[in-house]
């Protein structure tokens, strides 16, 4: 049953009969109908526009100005405006206006003001504030003692005299420590370079201190001066540079490729050892390595003084020199794994290297951490303050070379992850740039496609894409200069991909409209029709798309806000520039370029006719297009139009009821799947899961905080060199006797008739190196000693005679007259000039305490022979093993060495806290943060200033503070055991506070690494304590999703408010709060999802308003809304079928679906209206309403089908390169846009066409006044909605105030 025409959506009456009479008047020609504005295209503004775009020289001027203006604006921006920063940080998504961010920022500002830095690398309270705090507490304690002198309790344990004596002892202890420190410093300064050090002091290490990166801002402390003094005496060749650990490379080795994910297997450990040695063999390593004083006692390290990696391999690969064991990790042989780990676990620093699953009774870990430290000042720099940025730049240029090396080191058993501030940032930048290079691929594909769709016109292809590129420059100028945004976020990178598809849409509409207006004879009429029709159609689609992006500007997340603004500006500028340049390009192309291009194209097919464009628009429903013949201008467009008409539009119109039935069924199923889409259950991904960056970020949830460095935790610093045949630790007498017996037997086994073979080398050519084998340590010139690099072996031991299983005879031969050395398992051949130099005995199979070495000889002259530790270094000839090629085993004292034989290593240390959980701070004395002077909401800008509570008095609240600390630390559901850090480190307050209040006795002590600073902090200013923060390591796992972690936040908030509400009304502690950096991150994603969904609704409302104004009819608005609803539901359902979850990136992508979905169906509705205005060949009174709807629908597809399909194809192709991006937001955005584009064009050509053919107004022609009335109606509806919302919110406000007062 056909529907009758409905009334206008916003018009009260419509004189249909009068319109029918006008339609039934004599059949006007096409030229007369389309030329009602005048014979020359109209007067006034449109006449001027038509004249400008029909004069080639004027159009050339327009093109010149359109190209020059963006270039001039961009030149001004880059030359005279502040530089535009690229912000690729994760913090760009933080919401600084949220209460969780304001709390944490207030604490951060206070700590930075007081302590100089935020993380664990910060210095502790500076000496002035530390002394001030101590004196304040001691003075208060003294006043309490004086005030109670008249109220003594004779004989009691709490008598005044006892308290005074205790007070005096504490005072003397505090002041004595300070005096002792000052005396020591003055004594050290007086002695200067004559400071003497006892022999036993050479091997001691300062395990309780960590060097601070913030020390680069200071003048250097006296400890470093004394260290340098010690170095001057005992290391005259020491460089005195690179003595402070300033930079680092973080390494994480993860076990993979097996059922047993234990990293402590021989194969995996040897792989890790090879990688660490490889990094130290870099040619420039010694110029940047860290050179602490402690390396001077490690003889195997040689004269480089470079500290080896901070790794557990220092225990597993010890070195041996002169009968002593050095735990430096530079030894060639693997020690006994269980024994080495048993020694290492006696130190709490051991737990820093492994995961949380390792326990003393289960020495198994899935990963192993390592750090390589680099020192400053660098050579040619006097100090850390000498051109610090230049030093950092030099180190950055050096360390980035490791990225390519480390990227190739992963094996089937070990996955190598690498990071560090400079290396990680470089990886992020390289990843971003590589992903951006994909835009070039996208641009090249789009260029070829546009060239094809423009019927092989280079001129139109060039100016079509140029107009898009120029619009980007204008948008960037407005974004940076006019709107004053100084940053481009990581999301803005997708603009390079998306704008190509959006811009090409506008270009195709202009070209398609211009070609279809070829039936207009007068050039001015044709150009005015093109500008008005195409400009109006592209304006509406561009407006809705820009509005959808602009809806994101209401987001509180800075990166999303900037992305929405940038994309809205690009889409708007793209429409403006295409609307200005494309008519001018079409003018020049028609009059100057097209005849030559057309003649060349036709001549290539054997026909040189110069026919002009044929009218593409079918004006009669009876006229059926046939496949075009070759040689016609616009050949590609005509082929596409014919295919769309006969293969898509006509089947959709004929089977419209079936299509609508399928549509509603799909809509119901999609809506059901949308309800099943669950929020994200894991932390958001920034990079592809299998990449080094994302794997490292994910593992950090299980590792300690990034600020905790453990560069002095290895065996080099924790263990002293000791004799090879002595126990590591003192044991009871019985166990000691057993150990000595075992060691004696081992000594007798290992100390047979051994000899040492020394290897030296001589470079005789660019690619030839000779090796010399000798039993003498001295070497003649110009031979050079070997260093343990590239698999070279400086020396090895062997037996003089057969010993146990070491019975394989090897001979060293030397040639005459030119000496060349060779190792062979046979006798020397005197016929070829070889004679025996010496021989030794080795084993052919692996033995206990043995080391495998490889040997090989080159078959070509001069026949160099070589011994190396690994096969790659010995591959100098090909072929099977033989007398001069193979491997053998030599005795090794460190292979299988067990430092804990007999159980003499001691008890395992208790696992300390290394910030594996979220650190929650309870803060008192801070009210908030003042950001009144801040001009933007970006994270790189000024953070503001802290607002302090003037009523906070630590002496009045000390008892309540101690009670709160005890109560929170006792909550095992929220706080890990030993995770309470109530007091700042370095102030020795634990001995003073119990004297101030009895509740401060037995405060919980944190279980920290030796020398690790407490997160608790205190701020002093003006002679008083202004604020205090307690730190608690929570049980919250940082790898959970934001929606799951929010329950942990609520538990903390509820529990703390319960404790604070129990305090007296006058207590300033009631204004305390809890904060955590992790809370900022979870609310960032939650707010991102919520704001994106709000933007989705806002863009939908804007779309409804725009389409209502544009169509001015309910039956034209309804197909568009139903199409948008179906597209969004189906896209979300596809996300569910693909296994996606609703995270921040998915929600942000959904917010632009409305703007992207409305384009194609809105173009089709525009074609439906144009079909009603131009089709008069068949008298309408002879056709029923259903036939009219079908005719107008088919003509609409004829009119805009080619343009919207071409636009959809280019959009999909432009987003396909995004699929291969490493940055997950890019990839997700590209996938969602591609899916949305395919679904949108499919629904437009089927569902929208079926709806128009079923319910479209058959006789509706948009009158001029309808748009104005519709605009007024939309404005009125919007004003009414805003007023109603404000009224409802004002009505609920008193209710909320009452509820707050009750709380």
UniProtKB/TrEMBL annotation:
GO terms for cellular component: cytoplasm. Residues 483-588 form the SSD domain. InterPro entries: DISP3, DUF7023, HMGCR/SNAP/NPC1-like_SSD, SSD. Keywords: Membrane, Transmembrane, Transmembrane helix. Residues 17-28 have a biased composition (Acidic residues). The chain crosses the membrane at residues 57-79, 436-453, 459-478, 485-504, 563-589, 658-680, 1087-1110, 1116-1138, 1196-1226, 1232-1254, 1266-1288. Residues 176-203, 211-228 have a biased composition (Basic and acidic residues). Residues 1-40, 176-228 are annotated as: Disordered. This is Dispatched RND transporter family member 3. It comes from Oncorhynchus kisutch (Coho salmon).
């Amino acid at each position: 049953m056909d529907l009758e025409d409905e009334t206008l959506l916003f018009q009260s009456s419509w004189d249909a009969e009068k319109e029918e009479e006008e339609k039934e008047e004599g059949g006007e020609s096409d030229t007369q109908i389309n030329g009602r504005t005048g014979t020359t295209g109209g007067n006034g503004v449109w006449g001027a526009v038509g004249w400008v775009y029909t004069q080639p020289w004027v159009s050339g001027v327009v093109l010149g100005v359109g190209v020059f203006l963006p270039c001039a604006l961009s030149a001004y921006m880059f030359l005279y405006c502040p530089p535009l920063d690229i912000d690729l940080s994760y913090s760009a998504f933080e919401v600084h206006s949220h209460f969780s961010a304001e709390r944490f920022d207030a604490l951060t500002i206070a700590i930075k003001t007081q302590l100089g830095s935020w993380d664990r690398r910060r210095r502790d309270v500076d000496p002035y504030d530390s002394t001030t705090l101590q004196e304040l507490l001691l003075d208060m304690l003294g006043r309490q003692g004086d005030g109670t002198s008249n109220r003594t309790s004779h004989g009691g344990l709490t008598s005044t005299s006892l308290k005074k004596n205790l007070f005096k002892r504490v005072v003397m202890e505090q002041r004595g420590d300070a005096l002792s420190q000052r005396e020591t410093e003055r004594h050290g300064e007086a002695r200067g370079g004559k400071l003497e050090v006892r022999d036993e002091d050479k091997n001691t290490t300062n395990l309780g201190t960590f060097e601070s990166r913030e020390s680069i801002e200071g003048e250097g402390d006296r400890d470093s001066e004394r260290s340098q003094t010690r170095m001057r005496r005992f290391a005259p060749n020491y460089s005195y540079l690179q003595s402070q650990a300033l930079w680092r490379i973080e390494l994480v080795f993860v076990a993979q490729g097996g059922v047993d994910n234990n990293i402590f297997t021989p194969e995996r450990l040897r792989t890790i050892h090879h990688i660490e040695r490889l990094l130290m063999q870099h040619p420039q390593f010694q110029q940047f390595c860290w050179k602490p004083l402690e390396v001077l006692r490690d003889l195997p390290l040689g004269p480089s003084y470079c500290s080896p990696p901070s790794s557990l391999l220092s225990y597993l690969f010890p070195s041996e020199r002169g009968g002593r064991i050095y735990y430096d990790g530079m030894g060639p042989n693997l020690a006994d794994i269980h024994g080495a780990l048993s020694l290492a676990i006696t130190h709490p620093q051991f737990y820093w290297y492994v995961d949380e699953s390792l326990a003393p009774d289960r020495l198994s870990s899935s990963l192993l951490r390592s750090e390589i430290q680099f020192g400053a000042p660098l050579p040619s720099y006097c100090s850390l303050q000498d051109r610090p940025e230049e030093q950092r730049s030099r180190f950055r240029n050096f360390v980035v070379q490791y990225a390519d090396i480390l990227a190739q080191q992963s094996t089937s058993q070990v996955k190598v992850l690498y990071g560090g501030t400079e290396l990680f940032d470089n990886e992020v930048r390289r990843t971003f740039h590589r992903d951006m290079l994909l835009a070039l691929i996208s641009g090249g594909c789009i260029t070829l496609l546009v060239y094809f769709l423009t019927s092989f016109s280079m001129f139109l292809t060039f100016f079509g894409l140029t107009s898009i590129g120029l619009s980007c420059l204008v948008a960037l100028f407005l974004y940076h200069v006019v709107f004053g945004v100084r940053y481009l976020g990581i999301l803005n990178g997708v603009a390079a991909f998306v704008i190509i598809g959006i811009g090409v849409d506008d270009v195709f509409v202009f070209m398609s409209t211009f070609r279809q207006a070829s039936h207009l004879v007068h050039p001015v009429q044709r150009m005015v029709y093109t500008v008005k029709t195409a400009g109006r159609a592209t304006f509406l689609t561009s407006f809705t798309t820009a509005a959808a992006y602009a809806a994101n500007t209401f987001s509180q997340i800075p990166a999303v806000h900037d992305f929405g603004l940038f994309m809205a500006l690009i889409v708007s500028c793209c429409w403006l520039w295409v609307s200005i340049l494309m008519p001018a390009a079409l003018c020049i192309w028609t009059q100057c370029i097209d005849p030559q291009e057309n003649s060349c194209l036709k001549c290539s097919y054997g026909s040189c006719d110069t026919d002009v464009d044929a009218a593409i628009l079918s004006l009669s429903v009876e006229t059926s297009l046939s496949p075009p013949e070759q040689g016609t201008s616009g050949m590609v467009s005509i082929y596409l139009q014919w295919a769309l008409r006969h293969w898509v539009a006509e089947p959709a119109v004929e089977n419209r009821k079936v299509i609508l039935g399928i549509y509603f069924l799909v809509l119901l199923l999609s809506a059901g799947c949308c309800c099943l889409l669950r929020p994200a259950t894991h932390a958001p991904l920034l990079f592809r899961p299998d990449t080094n960056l994302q794997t490292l970020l994910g593992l950090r949830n299980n590792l300690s905080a990034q600020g905790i460095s453990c560069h002095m935790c290895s065996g080099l610093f924790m263990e002293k060199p000791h004799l090879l045949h002595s126990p590591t630790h003192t044991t009871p007498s019985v166990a000691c006797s057993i150990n000595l017996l075992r060691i004696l037997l081992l000594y007798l086994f290992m100390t047979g008739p051994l000899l040492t073979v020394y290897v030296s080398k001589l470079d005789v050519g660019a690619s030839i190196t000779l090796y010399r084998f000798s039993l003498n340590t001295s070497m003649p010139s110009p031979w050079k000693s070997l260093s343990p690099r590239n698999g070279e072996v400086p020396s090895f031991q062997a037996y003089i005679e057969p010993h146990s299983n070491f019975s394989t005879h090897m001979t060293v031969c030397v040639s005459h007259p030119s000496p060349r050395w060779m190792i062979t398992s046979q006798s020397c051949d005197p016929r070829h000039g070889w004679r025996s130099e010496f021989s030794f005995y080795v084993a052919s199979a692996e033995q206990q305490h043995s080391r495998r070495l490889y040997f090989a000889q080159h078959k070509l002259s001069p026949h160099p022979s070589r011994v190396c530790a690994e096969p790659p270094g010995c591959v100098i000839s090909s072929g099977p093993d033989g007398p001069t090629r193979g491997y053998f085993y030599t005795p090794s004292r460190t292979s299988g060495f067990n430092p804990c034989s007999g159980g003499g290593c001691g008890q395992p240390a208790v696992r300390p806290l290394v910030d594996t959980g979220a650190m929650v701070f309870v803060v008192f004395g801070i009210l908030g943060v003042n950001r009144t002077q801040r001009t933007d909401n970006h994270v790189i800008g000024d953070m503001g200033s802290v607002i302090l509570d003037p009523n906070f008095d630590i002496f009045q609240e000390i008892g309540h503070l101690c009670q709160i600390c005890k109560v929170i630390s006792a909550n095992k559901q929220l706080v890990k055991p030993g995770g309470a850090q109530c007091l700042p480190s370095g102030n020795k307050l634990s001995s003073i506070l119990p004297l101030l209040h009895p509740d401060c006795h037995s405060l919980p002590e944190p279980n920290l690494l030796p020398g690790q600073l407490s997160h608790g902090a205190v701020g002093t200013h003006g002679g008083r304590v202004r604020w205090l923060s307690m730190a608690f390591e929570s049980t919250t796992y940082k790898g959970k999703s934001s929606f799951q972690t929010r329950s942990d936040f609520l538990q903390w908030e509820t529990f703390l408010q319960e404790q604070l509400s129990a305090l007296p009304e006058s207590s300033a502690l009631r204004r305390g709060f809890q904060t955590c950096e992790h809370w900022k991150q979870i609310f960032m994603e939650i707010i991102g999802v919520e704001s994106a969904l709000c933007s989705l609704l806002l863009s939908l409302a804007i779309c409804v308003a725009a389409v209502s104004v544009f169509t001015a009819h309910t039956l034209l608005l309804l197909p568009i809304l139903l199409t948008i609803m179906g597209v969004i539901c189906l896209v979300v359902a596809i996300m569910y079928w693909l296994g996606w979850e609703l995270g921040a990136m998915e929600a942000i992508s959904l917010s632009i679906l409305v703007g992207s979905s409305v384009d194609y169906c809105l173009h089709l509705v525009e074609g439906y209206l144009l079909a009603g205005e131009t089709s008069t060949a068949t008298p309408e009174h002879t056709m029923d309403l259903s036939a009219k709807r079908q005719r107008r629908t088919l003509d609409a597809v004829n009119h805009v089908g080619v343009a919207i399909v071409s636009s959809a194809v280019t959009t999909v192709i432009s987003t396909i390169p995004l699929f291969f991006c490493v940055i997950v937001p890019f990839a997700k955005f590209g996938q969602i846009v591609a899916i949305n584009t395919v679904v949108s064009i499919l629904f437009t050509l089927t569902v929208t066409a079926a709806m128009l053919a079923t319910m479209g107004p058959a006789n509706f022609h948009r009158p001029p006044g309808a748009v104005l009335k519709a605009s007024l109606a939309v404005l009125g509806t919007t004003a009414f909605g805003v007023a109603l919302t404000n009224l409802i919110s004002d009505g609920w406000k008193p209710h909320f105030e009452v509820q707050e007062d009750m709380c």
